[in-house]
Amino acid sequence: MSSTTPTSPFRRVTVVGCGLVGGSVALATAALPGVEEVVVSDVDAGTLARAAELGIGSRHEPDAAVAVDGADLVVLCTPVGVTGKLFLSLVPSLGPRTVVTDVGSVKSQVLVDVEGSGRRWHGSGPSRLSSGSARASDVLSRFIGGHPMAGSERTGVEAADGTLFQGATWILTPTAGADVRAFEELSAFLRALGARVLAVEPALHDRLVAIASHLPQVLASTLMDEAADAAARTGEAVLTVAAGGFRDATRVAGSDPDLWVGILTQNRDAVLEALDGFLSRLHTVRDQVDAGDWDGVRGLLTRARAARERLPSKERAGRLVDLVIPISDQPGVLAEVTTALGEAGVNIEDLAMRHATTSARGALLVAVDGDETADRALALLRGRGITAHLEPR
Amino acid sequence: MSSTTPTSPFRRVTVVGCGLVGGSVALATAALPGVEEVVVSDVDAGTLARAAELGIGSRHEPDAAVAVDGADLVVLCTPVGVTGKLFLSLVPSLGPRTVVTDVGSVKSQVLVDVEGSGRRWHGSGPSRLSSGSARASDVLSRFIGGHPMAGSERTGVEAADGTLFQGATWILTPTAGADVRAFEELSAFLRALGARVLAVEPALHDRLVAIASHLPQVLASTLMDEAADAAARTGEAVLTVAAGGFRDATRVAGSDPDLWVGILTQNRDAVLEALDGFLSRLHTVRDQVDAGDWDGVRGLLTRARAARERLPSKERAGRLVDLVIPISDQPGVLAEVTTALGEAGVNIEDLAMRHATTSARGALLVAVDGDETADRALALLRGRGITAHLEPR
Lengths: 393, 393
Prior knowledge:
By secondary structure, chain A is α/β, with parallel strands linked by helices. Helices cover about 45% and strands about 15% of the residues of chain A.
């Protein structure tokens, strides 16, 4: 891989919804070689005007249906409760090769909304789009849900930052019907923005973020609320003595309440599961402290320290190794391969199709980071009955 | 106040226990004008040798009783369970004006240990030191407990950092018998290290840190343990997707388990109280999510955000105002005044005695930061029947 910024696979990119993430996507996209136009749309006229003032986007269009006309890529950066319905309303305006993604913090519900029914994810009910109309299923195959694991307790277009995604993990949730080329282009685009791509199934995504993001948000807000109450009861000193550890622990408590109510609403089941798991564990610690079971407490602290030290760093081994996976031209293989890797936490550093010239068969090349990861990925795929071999670059 | 580093009131300083905090105190002290010698002592010969290699301390002495001989200030930087008994063993070696402080994260128990009984803090039992021997009570009056609200998940002498206390709050817990001059010199010394002094009662200190420090530690470790368990159950992806919020929330989970078992052991009652308050609040949120009571959830998130924004910043108004408090030369006034201010979160930016030339009476001058804080402090003192007036510098 060269050290210069890769060229964007998309010339015309439309961002709908210009808050922190949308504005940051627009800024980062505009800096990519190969991008000719970044159209920004927002339902709020004031936000759109402010985006223009801040130099975010090369064209500003209040009507989303007009904004997506002619776009190679549409990035929906709207609140999670809005995205599905918005997508459906935009289908008639999308071009025959337009790739669509979103940035919502919860994925199952968006895909239910996008499919107009939820048949694929919940196994019941009629699907308005994926059956009956070839065009509709075609459009659906080019919608690939996404979620950048980057953000800030700051919100709104004023906080937009073109470097927000550098080094961040960007989750994609390709479904069984996902178009390989759409996935290939989209993941190349996200890498060009500086992100690392991880593909997982939508339902797994929601369980993961419930623990890694939504639970920490609830804990931070609850801790801050408890401390503020203690300050009111026993003197403001409790806030004055709050050192670095407390500030770290409560940083995300500064986040936008409405945004978070939307996220928690959409991911209620997984959040409840995470909260119940945490509560049970915290009750155990509480009882150990009460009983003076210090070996038990030490066990928790020791396990937690070891786990904290194992948190993946953003450092890369630096040497890419290709997994070569022969595939027939049947749908579903892409999602099966990429989400199997994602479940094990393996980033997709690059992805391409190698087409055989003499047959309908080809191979999927998935680059991963370093030999150790490659060996792990290979074992993983073979364990699922997927043939693969390694090919150093 | 001049912008140059203030002169240390202590020429010879001994630090006993050379871990992160002790090493940092030694480094910061050595940089102060007026300091002639920094003696470092540690029970571990390897640690002491490493301190010498790292240039921490100007003299290295394995025997603490020898190390404190001739010291103007002794800073005990030993684990919380050790400090009280260590102090008692050092009493015969302390000079007639030696000031002693410690840096323990829990204060009530250390003071119980220091007094050899706990009569002062728990109202029962005989006191070995504070009665019977004038010398003993004299020594006790010059022991002023302390706790710098600065630290790191890193531990040990290798992590020592002479700038650790810049801008940090350093809590002092003067008791009713505290020597005014010892407090005055010690607080001037801590300010010279770059810290801001806050004086509170020992029992209140322990309740404050239970909420602001010990509870966040338990939450961080529990969250990290829960996430690691989820990763083992559902795939390592949960750790790969952990973004900034999760890393912030679990940072202190990297701390030393033994250190924390010691802290939690000593502060069990206050920690249990904080855990129970938090658990009750988290159960409420959990039930609101379960019931779909989103107004309730929004209420929590909104209160927490407002409280987070009110967290005192390290910025100072910059203009010091003196509170002038006429005092008779009776013991207990210093602690009464300073801990009343501390309870309200008011830092003591400077402190001095103004002695009347013609009588035994004098005035305590306490400098606070800015007019608003001064007005608040004045109202607070008057509410407690303490006469005071303001005097701008």
